[in-house]
Design brief:
The protein is mostly helical. The chain has one domain (25-133). 52% of the residues lie in helices and 8% in strands. Strands 1-2 form a two-stranded antiparallel sheet.
Protein backbone atom coordinates (compact mmCIF):
# COMPACT_ATOMS: atom_id res chain seq x y z
CA UNK A 1 0.00 0.00 0.00
CA UNK A 2 2.83 2.37 0.88
CA UNK A 3 4.65 1.53 -2.34
CA UNK A 4 1.56 2.32 -4.44
CA UNK A 5 1.19 5.73 -2.81
CA UNK A 6 4.87 6.51 -3.39
CA UNK A 7 4.48 5.40 -7.00
CA UNK A 8 1.47 7.75 -7.52
CA UNK A 9 3.31 10.69 -5.99
CA UNK A 10 6.31 10.05 -8.18
CA UNK A 11 4.05 9.83 -11.23
CA UNK A 12 2.42 13.18 -10.33
CA UNK A 13 5.78 14.86 -9.96
CA UNK A 14 6.86 13.62 -13.37
CA UNK A 15 3.71 14.95 -15.03
CA UNK A 16 3.87 18.37 -13.30
CA UNK A 17 0.87 17.87 -11.00
CA UNK A 18 2.81 18.70 -7.85
CA UNK A 19 3.56 22.27 -8.97
CA UNK A 20 -0.05 22.73 -10.14
CA UNK A 21 -1.54 21.96 -6.74
CA UNK A 22 0.72 24.35 -4.80
CA UNK A 23 -0.69 27.69 -6.02
CA UNK A 24 -2.53 29.69 -8.64
CA UNK A 25 -1.42 30.42 -12.17
CA UNK A 26 -0.79 33.94 -13.39
CA UNK A 27 -3.90 33.80 -15.58
CA UNK A 28 -6.11 32.84 -12.64
CA UNK A 29 -4.73 35.71 -10.59
CA UNK A 30 -5.26 38.16 -13.45
CA UNK A 31 -8.87 37.06 -13.91
CA UNK A 32 -9.57 37.54 -10.20
CA UNK A 33 -7.89 40.97 -10.26
CA UNK A 34 -9.94 42.01 -13.31
CA UNK A 35 -13.17 41.00 -11.56
CA UNK A 36 -12.18 42.97 -8.46
CA UNK A 37 -11.39 46.06 -10.57
CA UNK A 38 -14.73 45.83 -12.39
CA UNK A 39 -16.67 45.51 -9.13
CA UNK A 40 -14.75 48.42 -7.56
CA UNK A 41 -15.50 50.61 -10.59
CA UNK A 42 -19.20 49.82 -10.43
CA UNK A 43 -19.22 50.56 -6.70
CA UNK A 44 -17.45 53.91 -7.19
CA UNK A 45 -19.93 54.96 -9.90
CA UNK A 46 -22.89 54.10 -7.70
CA UNK A 47 -21.35 55.98 -4.80
CA UNK A 48 -20.92 59.10 -6.95
CA UNK A 49 -24.54 58.84 -8.11
CA UNK A 50 -25.81 58.54 -4.56
CA UNK A 51 -23.79 61.59 -3.48
CA UNK A 52 -25.21 63.60 -6.40
CA UNK A 53 -28.76 62.52 -5.52
CA UNK A 54 -28.21 63.48 -1.88
CA UNK A 55 -26.96 66.93 -2.91
CA UNK A 56 -29.98 67.42 -5.14
CA UNK A 57 -32.34 66.38 -2.35
CA UNK A 58 -30.62 68.81 0.03
CA UNK A 59 -30.90 71.57 -2.58
CA UNK A 60 -34.63 70.92 -3.02
CA UNK A 61 -35.15 71.03 0.74
CA UNK A 62 -33.08 74.20 1.23
CA UNK A 63 -34.93 76.00 -1.56
CA UNK A 64 -38.28 74.95 -0.13
CA UNK A 65 -37.40 76.18 3.37
CA UNK A 66 -36.01 79.50 2.14
CA UNK A 67 -39.01 80.14 -0.12
CA UNK A 68 -41.38 79.42 2.76
CA UNK A 69 -39.39 81.81 4.98
CA UNK A 70 -39.55 84.51 2.29
CA UNK A 71 -43.33 84.11 2.03
CA UNK A 72 -43.83 84.19 5.80
CA UNK A 73 -41.58 87.24 6.17
CA UNK A 74 -43.48 89.01 3.37
CA UNK A 75 -46.87 88.27 4.98
CA UNK A 76 -45.75 89.26 8.46
CA UNK A 77 -43.77 92.39 7.63
CA UNK A 78 -45.94 93.46 4.66
CA UNK A 79 -42.79 93.80 2.56
CA UNK A 80 -40.33 91.40 1.04
CA UNK A 81 -36.91 90.94 2.59
CA UNK A 82 -34.19 93.07 1.01
CA UNK A 83 -31.63 90.26 1.48
CA UNK A 84 -31.45 86.76 2.85
CA UNK A 85 -29.74 88.18 5.93
CA UNK A 86 -33.05 89.86 6.81
CA UNK A 87 -34.57 86.39 7.22
CA UNK A 88 -31.85 85.41 9.67
CA UNK A 89 -32.06 88.68 11.63
CA UNK A 90 -35.84 88.39 11.92
CA UNK A 91 -35.61 84.77 13.10
CA UNK A 92 -37.21 83.09 10.10
CA UNK A 93 -33.99 81.15 9.46
CA UNK A 94 -31.23 80.22 11.89
CA UNK A 95 -28.61 80.76 9.23
CA UNK A 96 -28.39 80.99 5.48
CA UNK A 97 -27.82 77.41 4.30
CA UNK A 98 -24.85 76.48 2.17
CA UNK A 99 -25.76 75.66 -1.40
CA UNK A 100 -25.00 71.90 -1.57
CA UNK A 101 -24.13 72.04 -5.27
CA UNK A 102 -22.09 75.26 -5.44
CA UNK A 103 -20.85 74.78 -1.84
CA UNK A 104 -21.18 78.47 -1.04
CA UNK A 105 -23.66 80.61 0.86
CA UNK A 106 -24.18 82.77 -2.23
CA UNK A 107 -27.69 82.30 -3.59
CA UNK A 108 -29.24 83.98 -6.62
CA UNK A 109 -32.26 85.94 -5.51
CA UNK A 110 -34.94 87.49 -7.68
CA UNK A 111 -37.21 90.41 -6.94
CA UNK A 112 -40.45 91.38 -8.62
CA UNK A 113 -42.02 94.78 -8.72
CA UNK A 114 -45.41 93.16 -8.25
CA UNK A 115 -46.92 92.99 -4.79
CA UNK A 116 -48.02 89.52 -3.71
CA UNK A 117 -50.54 90.72 -1.15
CA UNK A 118 -52.87 93.75 -1.11
CA UNK A 119 -51.52 94.66 2.35
CA UNK A 120 -47.91 94.56 1.15
CA UNK A 121 -46.26 97.98 1.27
CA UNK A 122 -42.95 97.37 -0.56
CA UNK A 123 -41.30 94.82 -2.80
CA UNK A 124 -38.29 92.70 -2.01
CA UNK A 125 -36.91 89.24 -2.63
CA UNK A 126 -39.58 86.93 -3.99
CA UNK A 127 -37.59 83.84 -4.96
CA UNK A 128 -34.22 82.16 -4.49
CA UNK A 129 -32.19 79.86 -6.75
CA UNK A 130 -28.88 78.01 -6.67
CA UNK A 131 -25.89 80.00 -7.91
CA UNK A 132 -24.40 76.90 -9.56
CA UNK A 133 -24.07 76.77 -13.33
CA UNK A 134 -24.05 72.96 -13.32
CA UNK A 135 -26.77 70.79 -14.85
CA UNK A 136 -28.48 67.96 -12.99
CA UNK A 137 -27.46 64.59 -14.43
CA UNK A 138 -30.81 63.12 -13.39
CA UNK A 139 -33.28 65.84 -14.40
CA UNK A 140 -31.28 67.43 -17.22
CA UNK A 141 -32.01 70.98 -16.03
CA UNK A 142 -29.71 73.63 -14.62
CA UNK A 143 -29.65 73.84 -10.83
CA UNK A 144 -30.08 77.60 -11.14
CA UNK A 145 -33.53 77.06 -12.68
CA UNK A 146 -34.95 75.14 -9.72
Amino acid sequence: MLALRDFNQGLRRQRGFASRTRGFTLIELMVVMAIIVILATIGAMRYEQSVARAREAALHQDLFVMREAIQQYTRDKEKGPSSLDDLVEAGYLREIPTDPVARTKDWDTSSDQLLDDPDQMATGITDVHSSSDKVSPFEGTAYSSW
